[in-house]
Specification:
By secondary structure, this protein is an all-alpha fold. Helices cover 62% and strands 0% of the residues. It is built from four helices and no strands. It has helices at residues 3-18, 20-38, 51-62, 70-74. The radius of gyration is 19 Å and the shape is elongated.
């Protein structure tokens, strides 16, 4: 590779590495949002949501609070879904 090709490749790798946090957070939010969608029916006006389900859904919404590194994102543990 020429020096110019190497420089381009290094810039691409740096850009990829710089986006690691945003990608990790996006994946986490995707999984979290899917879990919330599974329980959205519980928030209907004709359904009484138990305190366990309210807590579970709030824990899911709070999951991304305080995450400022990829390492913290990788250690996130999803809350346990209440028994139905």
């Amino acid at each position: 590779m020429t020096a110019e090709e190497i420089a381009v490749r290094q810039a691409e790798e740096q850009a990829w590495n710089d986006g690691a946090f945003d990608r990790a957070l996006e994946y986490l939010r995707f999984d979290r949002n899917n879990l919330l969608k599974e329980t959205d029916w519980l928030a209907n006006s004709d359904v009484t949501m138990s305190d366990e389900w309210k807590t579970y859904r709030q824990e899911l919404r709070d999951l991304t609070n305080g995450l400022d590194t990829v390492e913290k994102i990788k250690t996130v543990k999803f809350p346990t879904k209440p028994s139905e």
